[in-house]
Amino acid sequence: MAKKDEKNLNITIKNQEENKEMMIISLSSILSHLKKYFVIWLVFAIIAGVVATAFSGFKTLVAKPSITALVSFTYKGVEKGLDPAGRTFDVNSIKSPTVIEGALSSLDIDIENLDNIRKNISIDGIIPEDAVNRITAYKNIYETATSGNLAAAQAMLDVTYYPTTYKVHFNYGEAGLNRREGAEVLNTMLKEYRNFFYKQYGFNQSLGTAVPAVKYKNYDYAEQIDIFSDTLTTLEKYLKSLATDDTNLFRSNTTGFSFNDLYRAAQTVESIDLDRISSLITVNNVTKDKNASISYCNYRIENLERSSASLKERLKTIEDSIANYEKDTILIFGNGTDGNDTSYSQASEEYDKLINQRVSTSTELAETKQRIEFYKSRKTALSSNKSATKEMKENVETQLAELGDKINELVNTTELTAQEYYENVEFKNAYNILVPAESSAVASISAVIHNAIMPIAIIEALILVIYFAVSFIKALIYSNRKPAVAGGNDDDDDDDDDNDIEDVIEAVEEAAEDRSSENNKKKNKK
Fold it and tell me: How many CB atoms lie within 10 A of CB 523?
């Protein structure tokens, strides 16, 4: 029993000696100090936040950061970097002088500010993150493809991404405007661009002004026929193109016509009205100057014959290219026993383009030959027939005037129908202002807050780190000083330990004596 007690006592003493060499970290002490300095930290955090916000707000308002609007394009071909006409799309047309001038005029702002405003507008395309990752992955494949599938890797690399959404920035401060004026100018400019977009890519305005722009009455009668014929040909091609692209069978609410209706109307005017007047002029030799008309026919014949020769050469070149074109070959391997492999050729995109060129060139050549024959017959008629009477000329003039009015009406109807089609169908969502520029007080406050977030976050994080560090250090110092204060000096501790040991030894000896006396009593009884 004594040995067991002594063993426990020695372990206790050893643990106490080890504790004197350890550094004590008290969680309760840390929490206590965090609570103690919480108010101080809170005050400093609030003051730092207010100061950072005020400084950022002052800096933002003085610097006049640019305002931003968001626009998008969703027409066919924009994903390939093309405009609706099939040409390379230039997004900088948003800030073209025509657009800015229209915006300034509607806001009654001096046009002299145009150049200053234009140079302070910048446009950035937005590329989605998944597109960036895809392009990067393809580039890595291309760089690692050193053999075997290099052609396939090059094809994969051809994944140039063209943005469909753009940010339009306007540095209104540099342009000499305040935020409200800057937002008005930018938003009005973006709205004005909608009209510019429709006019540029919608109805062919040169067609609409073809007849009025040319004073056909100043020309000879036969030449007037040519002017009307060219106008109707252009109109028919335009309407045919619209009818082909229109998959919704559009019918205008304004005019009540579809593009097929207008196309047939133009064909009717050309085949009936125009041909009737043309034959009347040719048969009756109606002309203002016979010799001048013959000279005109000779010029047209010579010019068309040169065009015909050029078209023949072009057609021959295209046909030679098609004959010598090496199509893409695909080889299908056999089963490995008979050695019979199969291969076949497939047409590529370039081959298809050559076929289309041959068709269009052949059509143009045929039309040119027909016009040559037409002018030759007219020249023959002018050379053989007598000049027309005054009554015949007046009749032809009247019919030509009526024909001119009819063509003008047809062109105007086409313009209205096409404009409604482009605005409500084809280009309904082609151009959209997703987020306009903001000029309100809320927007200004939002800009201040946005610019102040990062500085405030950094300052508050720094103060929080200092708060925790101070609390931890104070708690560490306090926890390692506390035992010395509570337990007294080391000598007193040693004396207490000795007294405790002596007490234990005396208690053990007394217990042993009592046990020995009990045993002696039992022996005496026996």
Answer: 7
Question: Residue 20: CA atoms inside 13 Å, Cβ hemisphere, count?
Answer: 10
The owner of tokens 């931003």 is 68
Residues near 167 by beta carbon (within 8 Å), at least 6 away in sequence:
68, 69, 70, 123, 124, 126
Beta strands in 22-83 (DSSP E): 67-73
Q: What is the C-alpha separation between 202 and 189, in angstroms, rounded?
A: 19
Most distant CA atoms of the chain, gap in Å = 182
* Cβ neighbourhood burial of 460 (10 Å; 0-12, 13-18, 19+): middle
Long-range CB contact pairs, 316-320, < 8 A, 24+: 318/354, 318/357, 318/358, 318/361, 319/358
Question: 43 vs 38, 154, 375, CA distance in Å?
Answer: 9, 62, 97
Calpha distance 228→440 (Å, rounded): 56
| Lowest mean pLDDT, pick from 128-142, 144-158, 315-329, 378-392 | 144-158
Is 283:387 a contact under the CB 8 Å cutoff? Answer: no
Confidence of residue 493 (pLDDT cuts 50, 70, 90): very low
Picking from 385, 373, 218, the residue whose alpha carbon sits closest to that of residue 290 is: 385
pLDDT at 267: 92
pTM of the full predicted structure? 0.53
Tokens of residue 487, six digits: 């337990």
Q: Measured on CA atoms in the order 133, 137, 142, 148, is the torsion positive or negative?
A: negative
For residue 310, give every residue at least 6 positions away whose Cβ sits within 8 Å of its Cβ, in sequence order, or none: none
Question: Which pair of tokens denotes residue 170?
Answer: 């306007």
